[in-house]
Design the sequence.
């Protein structure tokens, strides 16, 4: 999960006798999607439907393979016709495309046809280099390095005169988030004097610059 956006995609949900409006908002977190739709009735937009059947899959859903899709946990019971229904589907895989579709049933067990399909891309982690903590720092300063895929990382510290004082990382790193700790010493292991230092991180064509204050 980490940070994210909301995207609305309108689509028509098939109710038993009339269509409701199904809306996708997602992802709201790295591995979550929230789906919203207007509840249909058990007789067009009158009354209350009895059941929902929501399915999702990494393969496009069709009427033929709908039943093979995964059912989310905690699917709500239908609300009175016209009210907004909201479901959050969790534990999805980052970097994958998911397809969602819905059916409804009345009290006699009559099922609607499948709604049209919402597709959502679950974002993977983006390249990032955090601000140092603590800052001002005494003893150590930590950073978080985030890579969407394995790659070369170069992190170096400089004084304000532009002199390199420490190589903090230089080499391959795996995908994901990892902590990088600086002991506030130079390349010879000597404690650096108090002052302001700049830490440069280069990941491919991305460059980050962070300021660290070494407290006395």
Sequence:
């Amino acid at each position: 999960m980490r940070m994210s956006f909301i995207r609305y995609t309108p689509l028509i949900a098939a109710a038993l006798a009339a269509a409701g409006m199904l809306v996708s908002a997602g992802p709201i977190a790295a591995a979550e999607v929230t789906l919203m739709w207007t509840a249909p009735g058990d007789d067009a937009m009158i009354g209350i439907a009895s059941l929902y059947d929501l399915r999702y899959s990494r393969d496009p859903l069709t009427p033929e393979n709908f039943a093979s899709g995964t059912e989310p946990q905690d699917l709500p019971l239908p609300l009175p016709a016209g009210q907004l229904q909201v479901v959050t589907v969790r534990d999805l895989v980052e970097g994958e495309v998911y397809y969602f579709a819905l059916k409804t049933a009345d009290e006699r067990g009559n099922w609607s046809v499948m709604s049209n399909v919402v597709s959502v891309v679950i974002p993977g982690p983006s390249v990032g280099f955090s601000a140092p903590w603590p800052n001002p720092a005494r003893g150590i300063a930590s950073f978080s390095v985030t890579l969407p895929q394995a790659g070369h990382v170069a992190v170096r510290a400089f004084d304000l005169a532009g002199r390199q004082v420490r190589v903090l990382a230089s080499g391959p790193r795996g995908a994901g988030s990892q902590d990088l700790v600086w002991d506030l010493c130079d390349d010879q292991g000597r404690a650096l004097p108090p002052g302001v230092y700049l830490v440069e991180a280069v990941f491919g064509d991305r460059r980050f610059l962070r300021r660290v204050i070494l407290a006395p």
Summary: Residues 128-214 form a domain with the Immunoglobulin-like fold (CATH 2.60.40.4070). The mean pLDDT is 82. The CA atoms of residues 139 and 183 lie 6 Å apart.
